[in-house]
Write a structure and sequence with these properties.
seven-stranded mixed sheet, single chain, Rossmann fold, 15 helices, about 350 residues, alpha/beta, about 45% helix
Length: about 350
């Protein structure tokens, strides 16, 4: 297992360092507080985990500490889990795996072959937050597709691979559209360019696709100081890592970049109090909580925001007519906001 750092997350730990950090967290773990948060004993959760397909090969059940440590070690065997473990968050590549049809097909084939690893099974098919993330992508698509019209300028920030815009239907377009990918990660821009070339080769787009280095927290977003340039900006995966002041700053910069009556589509993870618990598998949520909160310490965890606060921050930035579209589980709602004339 490589100990090299991930280039697109300069602060990422090596795998060895990440697992050492997990052991340090386990040494400090207050088990009664964890069990109170989970609403069940860890021994019960171990029995739940043991019933998952493949768990008997991936996990150790000799004692509670070994069980928790083996969960982290199993995550490190997955590309997705390894990055999450080391960076405590997701980058453009790992986020795109959640939406990539080819990757989903590979996982399904591995499932049929009984070779799918436990972490990938849980992450892509069971963990409520990641299921909500996948659903959020489709909600974005449903909100964005009706806005695709002749001559429109659509932007994604941070664009990642820009699958959100590149996977839309442009067959009805008669007057060229412009798709603009904005991201401060040069590797992400390269990944987006590669996907754009792949899409264009299969189904040529009537319009142009361009990419620019951009920092959402900088005035003007780019060196060129974009202002009133876009009819639509979509954004997922940045604000969940920002504090309240940074979110308002980011939203104001997006507001400045939109044309009057332009649309901003974003999303945010909300606190557990706002979840639709009748739609959530609590045992999978408990396993997710142990993995993401206890073992990994995901960077977005302290920055979740109530829906009402996100709406207020968008309005402080100048947006109006903010619509909130929840996913089925109520974990990762979508916000559709309009810039007034």
């Amino acid at each position: 297992m490589s100990s090299g750092k991930f280039q697109s997350h300069l602060g990422a730990q090596s795998v060895e360092q990440a697992l050492a950090s997990v052991e340090n967290r386990l040494d400090k773990l207050h088990l009664p507080a964890l069990e109170q948060k989970l609403g069940c004993s860890l021994d019960r959760l171990m029995r739940v985990a043991e019933a998952e397909p493949g768990a008997q090969w991936a996990l150790r059940f000799s004692d509670q500490r070994q069980f928790l440590l083996s969960l982290a070690e199993d995550a490190a065997r997955s590309e997705f889990g390894r990055f999450l473990l080391c960076a405590r968050g997701l980058n453009w590549r790992t986020t795109d795996l959640l939406f990539d049809p080819a990757h989903q097909a590979t996982l399904r084939q591995q499932e049929r072959d009984h070779s799918l690893g436990l972490f990938d099974r849980l992450a892509f098919f069971s963990y409520p937050l990641l299921l909500a993330t996948q659903e959020r992508f489709h909600i974005f698509q449903q909100c964005t597709q009706p806005l695709v019209a002749d001559g429109t300028v659509l932007a994604s920030l941070p664009c990642g691979r820009m699958r959100d815009l590149l996977s839309l239907d442009y067959a009805h377009i008669r007057q060229e559209v412009r798709l603009v990918g904005l991201d401060k990660d040069q590797e992400a821009l390269q990944g987006a360019q590669a996907l754009a070339a792949e899409v264009q080769a299969q189904k040529p787009l009537r319009g142009t696709v361009e990419f620019h280095a951009s920092d959402g927290l900088r005035p003007g977003l780019t060196e060129a100081s974009i202002r009133r340039a876009f009819d639509l900006v979509t954004s997922n995966g940045l604000n969940i890592y920002l504090n309240d002041d940074q979110c308002v700053t980011f939203y104001r910069h997006v507001h400045e970049a939109l044309n009057p009556r332009g649309t901003f589509i974003t999303s945010h993870i909300v606190p557990v109090e706002e979840y639709r618990w009748d739609q959530i598998n609590r045992d999978h949520w408990r396993l997710q909580t142990v993995m993401l909160t206890v073992l990994i310490g995901a960077l977005w965890e302290p920055l979740v925001k109530p829906r009402a606060l996100v709406q207020k921050q968008l309005e402080l930035a100048g947006f109006r007519d903010v619509r909130i579209l929840p996913d089925l589980q109520g974990i990762f709602p979508t916000f559709v906001a309009t810039k007034p004339r």
